[in-house]
Amino acid sequence: MRGRGVGENVIYVRDILVLVRERRESMKEKNIIIAARLLSMVFTPFYLSFVGIAALFAFSWLSMMPWRYKLNVLGLVYLFTILLPTLLIHFYRNWHGWTLIELGKKERRIVPYLLSILSYFACLCVMHSHSLPHLMGSILLAALAIQIVCSVINVWWKVSTHTAAIGGVAGALLAFAMIFGFNPIAWLCVVITLAGMVGSGRMILRQHSLAQVTTGFVVGLATAFYVVMFA
Description:
Blueprint: H1 6-42, H2 48-59, H3 67-96, H4 100-103, H5 110-129, H6 134-154, H7 161-180, H8 185-204, H9 210-230
Helix pairs in contact: 1-8, 2-3, 2-6, 3-5, 5-6, 6-7, 6-9, 7-8, 7-9, 8-9
């Protein structure tokens, strides 16, 4: 049996190199998609209230409150604004047999919005019944307002609630900076960087366009700033 000629060997090696390069590119794409999914899971739209109140306990006069009080409040907020809406939306999705991508369609997002709004409203009512400080209520009210504004926009056009939540963090941060008189630049840099990462992840997963993630951020920022400052 004759061996390969020089030309055949060159073509063979080239084909191997092309195959290796394609596999590397495929692995990179898979890793990017995994990272985008993790970002979407970690920075869920429901974390705004929890993070905001935790920040109040860490950096405002509320830091003087007993640890048991802080944990009870954070547990209450986690229950109503993260765990409850997440479970309700999960059951709703499974009941219809939809994937996350199928649930993300504009016409199917109305019920998840309503479930989230009801959960946030219930938390606000419970906190009001326990006469919790106004600052905490303003954060919950801001998160509720963002959910309502996004649900109204969704009737005509799909908007990213992930970036709306991060925009809400930025808006609340600016408002509290004005209220308490501190420099928010360093924290804003962190928030904007996270917003860019999460927004990019939502576009990589083909859940939103650039206009939708940008609009979401602006809506969240403006709504949270106005509610915290004037509510």
